[in-house]
Write a structure and sequence with these properties.
Layout (H helix, E strand, L loop, with lengths): L8 H4 L19 H36 L1 E2 L2 E2 L13 H9 L6 E3 L5 H14 L2 H10 L4 H6 L7 H17 L23 E2 L8 H14 L6 E6 L6 H10 L3 H4 L11 E7 L33 E4 L3 H16 L5 E6 L17 H9 L2 H11 L5 H22 L10 H6 L23 H7 L21 H15 L4 E4 L15 H4 L5 E3 L4 H13 L4 E5 L9 H8 L2 H4 L8 E7 L12 H5 L5 E3 L4 H13 L4 E6 L27 E4 L4 E6 L2 H16 L3 E5 L2 E3 L4 H10 L2 E8 L4 H12 L9 E5 L17 H11 L14 H10 L2
Length: 816
């Protein structure tokens, strides 16, 4: 049953005032007995060791970038090195109290997070498990090299492994944590809970939110931390992610046993600078960053400002916040004060900062002040600290020598980069388990069982819309099948649930699925897609939906920089079972009716499907939902009520898949080939009828179906038979997918062509109102006229539109 929440006018119109909870600021007070009880004396000293390790590691990178070497080892590192020197206490204090089940997603300034989280996690593993992780990773390649550094026990070996794996990745080496495919800004080590770090400011926030959804929906232990900088508060996707994580429905509509809000902490490493812009007082208006939590929910996101110069203060706060998140009462916002002495990158001289300010912060440098705290309380001596620093520097020098050795530590070749793009691993279920789904007495399934699965009945008469199995029904059958076999699959987007989806595709799913597997999201397209990326990275299957293709612009970074790239940047160590359903509109004018397939076609790493028949709607969505690659799945709104015209016997009832990348011949012919993408197929068939009836020309009509991958064999075979090719789709002609197809056909079958390949696309103007759409979208007469003017003269034909070469040149000259 659908469920709604009553909006009572008596309540919402009542007078009153909002009381904001107190937001703590730097409330931590040190007590030796308390901290020794929490971490032990050795644990407190270990925090310092981790901080020194991170500082030394980043100082090494700083020296290499500025001087070309460190400790007598010369190396030319061509890649970036965004450093967090000065922020070590914030990194270590956070990681020290997290478990391997807790995930950290960081930013481009993430070396300290990778090291501190990995150090902490490795210490918590049992020896046998730790050894298994290292031996199993990349078939022991990274471990084998780490063993050459020298060690006395397994714990020292794990430190070698972490240091070498991280540095080798920064240097783009094959034995690095991501085979060198991620580099400095994208390195991570998932077995230790160090998750993909992000070069886009604030980029981790939506993805980490998806990871938290994965934990909540699939009842996995641990929390998720999105580490971003203070400047990330200027990024829309960060706010969208916070809205998605803060939805009331987790507590009001989801069942109690589903756990409440996703367990995510948005931690802002607040070092007061974006790049050269000072966030506090210059580019932001919050005064105290923690204040922004007050505007999100009644709990003010449990926001708190924490003194990130003291690792104990950070560890205390993270421990408290973790409890809140585990109880489903999140999300949490932490404003962790810190300060980086390094510039944005080694090439940044920090001229925008006053030296007096830097001097003030150097007086409270986290390693200096924490060392003094331990020494004054008799936990360590300065000699002990110096000995550890010297020993660690010696070890790191050996790591540097090995990671910079071209022979011992080579890089991958171009073929590896190519193979890392797609996983191509069909998978029934991302995880074993029982799918929580109720199909008995489902009203949609019952209704579909009575529908005619073809556009015409046994007598060849058209079937009414009410009785006909439609395109939207085919999509539903694919969705319900995968929901029933993959317990990890979850879907979300605008109006996904009680309304049955914006175009009735999901009608019937509400009765079949609990909220945690199908739910409405805010109108936050970046968060919708970004959460899908995080959910998939963690091993779940996600289906995100954009109500209109035009909204790709609102989710651009998540589609083009995140969804498309993480499999390759992770060297195939993660998969991306994410399907993004995108509706291509009409009738709604310039901002709701665009076909942007070309945008997705241009981005490496995405598979792009565009079915035009109900049979393919089901078969291609089955294919997408069975795979482990990111698929942008376009659906034309012109086709949602379309019946099956081509498949004998109608849309098959059982499970089937459309062969990936294979076009379909919808009508055979011998004189000209017309190839289309999307709903234009049906206008092309009308044009083929006219060509046959009026001009005796036999047209072969091909439905491309796929943008990427696309097998050209069938199209080339047809062109070699006909010698002529017309391409058409509803996308604007300039820069469309068809331009790419035309270029490839002319390269692959030039000798077979008797005329230039001709494209008939939509006009290069804004899309007008519905009443004028026939002046914008390709029509059958446009195709006939284009064939007559630019391919082969049609006897006795009088054009009704201008499709001449001169008109083509004129439009381009004017930019239309």
């Amino acid at each position: 049953m659908t469920k709604s929440l009553t909006v009572d006018p008596a309540k919402v119109r009542a007078s009153g005032k909002i009381t904001i909870p107190d937001i703590p600021i730097n409330q931590y007070t040190f007590d030796l007995d308390t901290e020794v009880g929490r971490y032990g004396k050795d644990g407190m000293v270990q925090m310092l060791h981790d901080m020194i390790a991170v500082r030394t590691f980043e100082s090494m990178l700083d020296s290499i970038k500025k001087t070309g070497g460190w400790q007598g080892v010369e190396y030319n590192h061509r890649g970036p090195a965004h450093l967090g020197i000065g922020q070590e206490a914030a990194y270590v204090g956070q990681s020290f109290v997290l478990t391997p089940d807790d995930f950290i997603f960081g930013s481009h300034r993430s070396h300290g997070e990778i090291l501190s989280k990995s150090f902490s996690a490795a210490r918590q593993y049992e020896d046998a498990d730790l050894e298994a992780v290292m031996k199993g990773f990349l078939d022991g390649e990274t471990l084998g090299l780490a063993e050459e550094i020298g060690y006395e026990n397994l714990r020292e070996l794990s430190e070698n492994f972490i240091l070498f794996g991280t540095l080798a990745e920064i240097f783009a080496r094959k034995a690095g944590f991501n085979r060198g495919m991620g580099g400095s800004m994208h390195a991570f080590f998932q077995p230790f809970g160090s998750m993909p770090n992000n070069a886009i400011v604030g980029g981790s926030a939506p993805i980490a939110t998806g990871a938290a959804l994965y934990k909540r929906i699939n009842r996995k232990p641990g929390i998720v931390v999105a580490n971003v900088g203070d400047a990330a508060l200027g990024c829309g996707p960060v706010w969208e992610a916070i809205q998605l994580a803060s939805m009331d429905q987790y507590r009001t509509l989801w069942r109690e046993e589903d756990g409440g809000n996703p367990p995510i902490m948005y931690n802002f490493f607040n070092n007061f600078y974006g790049m050269g812009g000072q966030t506090s007082g210059e580019t932001m208006g919050y005064d105290v960053l923690a204040r922004v939590g007050a505007g999100v929910n009644p709990e003010a996101m449990h926001a708190e400002r924490v003194d990130g110069i003291n690792p104990l203060a950070v560890a205390d706060a993270v421990t408290r916040k973790k409890k809140i998140l585990e109880e489903g009462r999140g999300p949490v916002l932490m404003d962790t004060l810190t300060y980086r002495f390094s510039g944005h990158s080694p090439s940044d001289a920090s001229s925008y900062r006053d030296k007096a300010e830097v001097d003030l912060w150097e007086e409270v440098d986290c390693i200096k002040t924490y060392s003094e705290l331990l020494i004054s309380n008799g936990l360590v001596s300065q000699g002990d600290i110096d000995d550890f620093s010297a020993k660690f520097t010696e070890k790191l020098t050996k790591v540097l020598v090995l990671a910079s050795d071209d022979e011992k530590c080579p890089r991958v070749g171009s073929e590896y980069v190519e193979n890392a793009m797609f996983s191509n691993t069909p998978t029934e279920a991302m995880e074993e388990g029982e799918s929580e789904i109720t199909l008995e007495d489902n009203p949609r399934i019952k209704a579909l069982s009575k529908k005619i699965r073809s556009s015409r009945d046994e007598n060849g008469k058209p079937v009414s819309k009410m009785k006909m199995f439609q395109f939207r029904d085919a999509l539903f059958e694919a969705m319900i099948h995968r929901f029933s076999v993959d317990p990890t699959m979850a879907a979300w987007g605008e109006e996904n649930r009680d309304w049955g989806g914006a175009f009735a595709v999901y009608r019937g799913l509400t009765e079949a699925l609990p909220y945690r597997r199908l739910f409405n999201s805010p109108i936050s397209e970046a968060a919708i897609v970004g959460a899908g990326v995080g959910y998939a990275i963690c091993g779940g299957r996600a289906v995100a939906e954009l109500m209109y293709c035009d909204f790709l612009g609102r989710s651009g970074d998540e589609v083009f920089n995140q969804m498309a790239k993480w499999q390759a940047m992770a060297a195939g160590l993660i998969k991306m079972p994410l399907v993004l359903r995108v509706s291509v509109g009409n009738k709604y004018g310039a901002q709701h009716s665009q076909d942007w397939t070309a945008l997705t076609a241009h981005i490496p790493g995405l598979k792009v499907y565009f079915p035009a028949t109900p049979t393919d709607a089901k078969g291609m969505l089955n294919l997408a939902l069975h795979g482990t690659d990111p698929v942008v799945f376009f659906e034309s709104q012109q086709l949602y009520d379309k019946g099956e015209d081509f498949e004998e016997g109608g849309v098959p009832e059982g499970y089937y898949e459309t062969p990936e990348g294979e076009p379909a011949v919808r009508r055979e012919g011998k004189d000209i080939t017309i190839a289309t993408l999307g709903a234009t197929l049906y206008r092309a068939l009308e044009a083929a009828d006219i060509l046959e009836e009026k001009y005796g020309m036999s047209a072969e009509v091909i439905d491309l179906r796929f943008v990427c991958p696309l097998n050209y064999d069938k199209l080339i075979e047809s062109v070699k038979k006909t010698g002529r090719l017309l391409l058409s789709s509803d996308a604007c002609e300039r820069g469309s997918v068809l331009q790419d197809v035309a270029q490839n056909v002319q390269s692959l079958a030039f000798d077979a062509l008797d005329a230039p390949v001709t494209i008939v696309g939509s006009r290069n103007t804004v899309i007008p109102a519905a009443e004028l759409e026939k002046t914008f979208f390709p029509q059958p007469e446009w195709m006939i006229d284009a064939i007559h003017e630019r391919i082969v003269p049609l006897p006795g034909h009088t054009p009704t539109t201008n499709q001449t070469e001169g008109e083509l040149a004129r439009r381009n000259r004017l930019g239309i």
